[in-house]
Amino acid sequence: MLTVYSDSHRLQHGQAELIDGTLKPCFETPSRADMVLAAVRERELGDVIHPSRHGADPILRVHDAGYVRFLETAWPRWSALGRDYDALPKMWQVRRLREAVPEHVEGQLCYYSMDCGTPITAGTWQAATAASDTALTAADRLMGGERAVFALTRPPGHHAARDYCGGYCFFNNAAIAAQSLRDRGLRKVAVLDVDYHHGNGTQDIFYPRADVLFLSIHGDPRTEYPFFLGFADEKGEGEGLGYNFNFPLPAGSCVSTWFVALDCALEQIARFGAEALVVSLGVDTYQGDPISRFQLDSPDFVTLGARLAGLKLPTLFCLEGGYAVEPIGTHVVNVLAGFEARG
Ligand SMILES: NCCCNCCCCCC(O)(O)C(F)(F)F
Ligand SMILES: [Zn+2]
């Protein structure tokens, strides 16, 4: 399987995130991608290519122009205030506060974000655009005839909505890739999110649409991040009603429960008649993940890959989460190798 990878990911290296009420070193570190790349090479998964540049247009097919402009200008404006440390928001526009876009960079940081775990640094813009180019290059190769491509994307993307960042995500790489497949002529694309956390951003982007089916298996938002989206009764809106499937599972759910949800999701993808599949591949479903609470173990990721191959669809994998850094490469490549072995 072909892998698309850019070294530019390491330009995103936040100093700290506010997690569980205190500032801690970021869990989303460059070493995550380094470990995955090392495993791709060690297991001889296939060629590794660098992304080609695609410019802003494909990003603007998914994200709001004001949000993209904010991300591009945030760091220079923040550092012009004499701040050489990461930019983090300090409040949000909550219920009954005006939904007006502030002029000041501090206000825009609050308006265009959903949490304070997603530091904007000097290299964020370059890293995030490189991740988007990585996913787009994977889409190009899938349309060029590859059966499956792995976009080794970092920073991740599935929490990034049309007009806000969060959960370590800035551009929604999987959504940008899915939209690119649509723009290149596919009529129906499915996005399956197997990360521990609900892909609120991807849901937000495709919620009113019937041409992209979104499905997510994740920790129940009643107790798990991102808390405010990902419930089973969210089924889409307008033309998109019936094209959104959430499978929230209680924290601590066993592996067999997880795979029952997966089989339900795969059945919906087959019924939809998808012509291609984009997988938001987070491996924080691992039993040893430091911030997540599912029970998958290493062999289960091989099973996951094989089940996905059973759809017999051109498939684009986008890396999302996974914070047990030592085994992350093994788990990600287990999915990809399991997919390939199913042939
Ligand atoms: N007590 C735990 C608090 C967790 N706070 C932030 C969690 C972010 C998860 C990010 C991710 O894994 O979903 C992604 F794939 F986007 F990277
Ligand atoms: Zn996650």
Automatic annotation (TrEMBL):
Taxonomic placement: Bacteria, Pseudomonadati, Pseudomonadota, Betaproteobacteria, Neisseriales
Keywords: Hydrolase, Metal-binding, Zinc
InterPro entries, alphabetized: HDACs (IPR000286), His_deacetylse_dom (IPR023801), His_deacetylse_dom_sf (IPR037138), Ureohydrolase_dom_sf (IPR023696)
Annotated Histone deacetylase domain residues: 28-336
Similarity comment: family membership: Belongs to the histone deacetylase family.
Swiss-Prot/TrEMBL cofactor(s): Zn(2+)
Keyword Metal-binding among UniProt keywords: yes
Species name: Chromobacterium phragmitis
Highest rank taxon of the organism: Bacteria
Name assigned to this protein: Histone deacetylase family protein
Keyword match Thylakoid: no
